[in-house]
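To whoever is on call:

I kicked off a structure prediction for a single chain this morning and the downstream step that reads the tokens threw a length-mismatch warning. I double-checked the sequence; it's 490 residues and nothing unusual in it as far as I can see. Pasting both halves so you can look.
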Amino acid sequence: MNLATRIAASVLIPMMLCILAYGVVNVRLRRVEMTEDARRELRDHATTLSASLGAALRDHQIEDIGELVDDLSQADRVLGVVIFDDHDQLVRASQALVRDATRFTSLGHSARAGTPRVEAMTARDGRKMLAYGFALRARLGEGPRGSAVLLRDLSYIEVNVSRSSRAVSIVGLALALTLVAAVWVGVRSAVLRPLSMLIGAVERTGLDALEHKAVIVRPDEIGRLAVAYNTLLDSLREAREALEERTDALVTAERRLHHAQRLALVGQLAANLAHRVGSPLNVILGRARYALQKGGQSERDQMHLREIIAGAESISSVIEQLLARARKGRGKVSSIDLGSVATDVARFLEVEAEERSVTIVVRAPSPVRVKASRAEIEQVILNLCVNAMQAQPKGGRIEVTVAVTDEGTPRAELRVDDAGPGIAKEDRAKVFDAFFTTKEPAEGTGLGLTICEEIAQRLGGGMTLGDSALGGASFIVNFPLDAEDERDES
């Protein structure tokens, strides 16, 4: 049994019982009322008949008594009259009652001996009738000279009661059908439809679909239930967002931990390399310089010694940079113009860019100054531009843009865009990880972007990856503006 049927039953069954009880009570009251009316009419007829019969007895007009009996027998709903003398002998009876006259002797005797009596009786044909017995007197104050029994038909009462019962049944049935229709329509519009909407919203709801709110605006319990459901959805959505934020934070923290571990490994490798390579390298460099200063070699040997010294110095410089990176050395910090550094780096790469058929364009319409080590900023821009050139082996375009962001707190922004193939979606989350690279082993070690991000973060900024309007990748590095430069602008 569904909800609508239960509600309809709970409403209609009591109403139908009330209607049934009303019909039963109404029929009974109708029967009692009609019976009382019949009794009054019977008494009225008896009073009239008593006066007429008394006058006929007084005047000894026996024929008039017969006419009165015959006339009264023709009256509506009167079955007839039976008259007895003072010895309870039948004097006159209506034609229809002649055979049953003796049935009323005791009633006539009782009425002559005492007060008038009314009894309910049944005729031979089964009809209900009412018998009224009363004494007959010639004059007021004289003793009774006989008695009379007046009979009234009651069968019409049952007919009328039956008609009333049918009428009440028809009205009750019509009222019940009307109530069924009204309750069904009311329950459907007031309960079932909003509940169906609420159930539909609940069925569409899942951990990945918390946007299906119940659109029910009502001041009743269903409206309050919809509001509570929508509040629950908001709470679940907020909890999911908080969980996602925590998950993202944990993933970021884990990535940073791996990143730090890899950088620590880089530092250990650099320290170990400096220890293992530095000492022999210093010996080689010292011996080569000593041999070159001592002289006596051929021109060819001197050239080889100079190449050995230059190579050893280059290796020594790399080792010093690795040690500086392991110790997080920053170099000399000053206020530098990002556009100027970007222009110098582009000029430095001009020859290699021409060889690769790559055009480098620098857009720096106004000076944008940051507090940083020029060497570190050069390293960031150089690394990003070299990566962009290597991503375009058949030629292309690189755009370096320097500007100040106007979202929230103003910051310096360095953007490097290329027209290469871009970076695959599955690799974007790992491009800043140490030792991760999509290049050939001879072209990269996977440390360039890691070092660039580490420099940006150490300067109070950050580095992100996006899609370039040129069709390739877009690396965006942001730094805090130089505080003195900000005061000058204000």
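Update from on-call: the warning came from a stale cache, not from the record. Cleared it. Sanity check on the structure: The radius of gyration is 61 Å.
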